[in-house]
Amino acid sequence: MITIRPATAADVDTILHFIKSLAAFEREPNAVKTTPEDLLRDGFSEQPKFETLIAEMDGTPVGFALFFPTYSTWEGTAGIHLEDIFVEESVRGQGVGERLMQALAAIAIERGCARLELQVLDWNPAREFYHRLGMEHMQEWLSYRVSGEALRKLAEKA
Q: What is the pTM of this model?
């Protein structure tokens, strides 16, 4: 039986395990800098920066979804950005990912959000999963990012 529940501060080690597992899947096993302390501070403080859902099968954590609010100026309402979703390989294809996505959609509707968004690597086979759920690939939109030294240099000009 699959259950989906909100994560608690007691889940930070589990969340970090899933983050590291996702990084390994995405071929970046050494890229994770996040610590349990980071997750406690940013996810379970008085003003959390993100929320997490934990998927369990028979009481054992098998997946997670980490998300945070966004805002659409064109829609004039909030949305949800799904930063990470991961399901243990041993239980893929058993409905865990779909249940996580259904729970996120329910949260979005409950909160009056106009949309649920995510980014996925172009080679990730989960793209077909997202299409089956009714998600659209926004081909005309390109993701951009500034970080690290480039971010510091840009900020220096302020």
A: 0.91
